[in-house]
Design goal:
- The chain starts with 11 loop residues before the first strand and ends in a 14-residue tail after the last helix.
- It has a domain of 46 residues.
- It is built from one helix and two strands; from the N terminus they run E-E-H.
- It has 98 residues and is an alpha+beta fold.
- The longest helix is centred in the C-terminal third of the chain and has 22 residues.
- It has a two-stranded antiparallel ribbon with strand order 1-2.
């Protein structure tokens, strides 16, 4: 369970990792909503969060030191996007997962 800011909701996330592949972060609860007429930004087709560019995470990095803070940052951007319609994070679309 993570809470991006003191004013944020608490989110339950699931992080999965298999050797040789990238970690995947999925928000389990609450269900992520979208703005009317807009797709949920920076998520992959299967629903995992787009947290980093391909070269920003390496298998020798600790998931707790990367994926958790990155998920908190993503969720903070998500909450601001829901309120304002502006995504403050990286604007590049997610690359297809390996």
């Amino acid at each position: 369970m993570i809470q991006p800011t003191p004013l944020s909701r608490t989110y339950t996330v699931r992080i999965t990792y298999a050797t040789g592949g990238p970690p995947r972060v999925l928000v389990v609860r609450p269900t992520l909503d979208s703005r009317p007429g807009e797709p949920l930004p920076h998520v992959y087709r299967e629903g995992s969060l787009c947290l980093y560019q391909d070269d920003e995470w390496l298998p020798n990095m600790f998931i707790a030191d990367t994926m958790l803070p990155w998920a908190c940052e993503w969720l903070a951007h998500y909450e601001l996007w829901m309120a304002t319609g502006h995504w403050g994070g990286n604007r590049e679309p997610p690359a297809p997962p390996d």
